[in-house]
Amino acid sequence: MKKEAFKESIYNFKKAWKFARKQKKLLIGYFILSLGLCLISAIAPMLDAKGLLYLTAGKWNSLFLIAALILIVEITRNTCHFFSQRCSQIFFRETLLQIQYTMATEMLKLETEEIDHHSTGTFIDRLTKDTGDIANIFTQLNYSITDILSNIGVMAAIFIINKWVFLYFLIGLIILYLMNRIKMKKYFTLDKELRKINERNTGLTSELIRGMRDIKVLNAGTTFLNKLRNKLSTSNQERYKMSGIMRRYQWLTGSFQDVLTFLFNVLGIYLVSIHNLTISNFVILYMYQSRVYNLLSYMTQFLEHYKNFNVSAERVFQVLDEDVFKKEIFGEKHIGKINGDFEFKNVSFSYANGKPILKNLNFSVSANETVSFVGKSGAGKSTIFSLLTKLYPVHKGKILIDGHDINTLDKDSIRDNISIITQNPYIFNFSIRENLKIVKEDVTDEEMIEACKMACLHDFIMTLENGYDTVVGEGGLTLSGGERQRLAIARALLKKTEIILFDEATSALDNKTQNSIRKAIKNMQGEYTILMIAHRLSTVIDSDRIIVIDEGKVVEEGTHEYLLHHSNLYRDLYEQELEEVK
Ligand code: ADP
Prior knowledge:
By secondary structure, the chain is of the alpha/beta class. It has 19 helices and 10 strands. Strands 6-7-8-3-9-10 form a 6-stranded mixed sheet, sandwiched between helices. A 4-stranded antiparallel sheet has the order 2-1-4-5, covered by helices on one side. Helix 2 packs antiparallel against helix 9, helix 6 (163-210) runs antiparallel to helix 8 (221-273) and helix 8 (221-273) packs antiparallel against helix 9.
């Protein structure tokens, strides 16, 4: 093993042990029981051999005694096995939970840009599959150590019985081990590649499920399935290559072992014929033979788990550590409840592709003001919201919340004080009650009803058979766009944040729903700082101020009346909308 790889393994083990440490008593219990099992397994062949000899000699009483002993030994082995499995399974369950929980926690800290640029599969596979390999390594290590120890005991016994047979087994083992090394090298190079391919496949499969409705309506099933088939066939080919390596190896080692067994018989018969070995010892050695090969398969299994562990650990720790997937960075300052005024000072911003989106943006909003942003699509309005919620960090210019630079504030000071209601808010596949509880665990029924009434959603909920306990489907599938937005408004109201950002839904909503939403916003006006991206200028007339954004800059601001007379862009947008209504 190369020095670097060894160092990396030690690092991985140390990190993985942090998750397993709490369950170490279970691991010790498992180790002791496994040692007991090994001891029993070492005794069993001797009893079998003795039994066989008594049988051929017709010593029935002794044979009966041996049979009874074998029964006791086997029952003890079975019981030991039961408890050792129990220990290892509880250990695995608890360790896995800890790794997965930490992994999920760390995923929530990832920079939004990382999520933009990776498929869901990148994270799903690591969370669900790779974590298992990490939790598995300790029980596997334990299992292998005890088995290897007991089998080394078997080798020692063979050495004592006959040195020639011992030498013969040793040479056989070394050859089998070398064959195995070659297989492992090829196998794990492919495995690394396969996991990358699988990540992409999981991503595509989850898109198949989430985009199912659109795929159906677009009647794009064939195209999508062709895409999926290509991807799946690549990964299946890769998997086939891997099983091919295993198949060839098994054939080769199986045949080699058959030859070894044959040669062992020849050697044994020869040694017996020259009186170098007694018949009873020959029978015992014959019984031990399979255990010698087991030693190799235990080592092989362990090496496989060890390699698997390293590949998985690398993938999991890439998410847990900061060096591959970047994490969000927050400041230290905690400011509790804010007044709700903020300012953008010379803010410039571009996404990862480097294209400038916001260019030296300047504006300020006072507490409890309602301000609307208007401008062409792609002007940068939603980006302003993303920066204010720190979904993306600002590197050029400053955003001040209550006079504090956003980059100096801790996560809670920002996210507990600002809510965002997007055009298509994500509603979880829980009941309406649970969706509301997600922002406030101890919410009372009264608070919930009050928020839903303000969001003009309560009456609708009352029409549902199970009311607040209605489960809404993945992404709020069973709700209309307007209902989803109003549920998101209720969520924001429950959070009682001072600043509410609202990306108004486009014309997809009917007039009645639009009015309900408008009424919901009106209910909040004056009490909260409300920022709105208005896609329909009819919505902005009620705002205290309107800011016109064009190509990432503020080009004008004022009331509706003022802008109609002073901003060409605003007038154009307004006239365009009047045209559309006609
Ligand atoms: P608006 O809300 O005014 O329609 P946006 O702020 O959504 O505009 O988008 C501004 C520009 O930024 C658009 O050209 C859009 O394609 C680009 N953009 C938006 N989100 C991302 C992203 N996550 N990564 C890269 N480019 C983005």
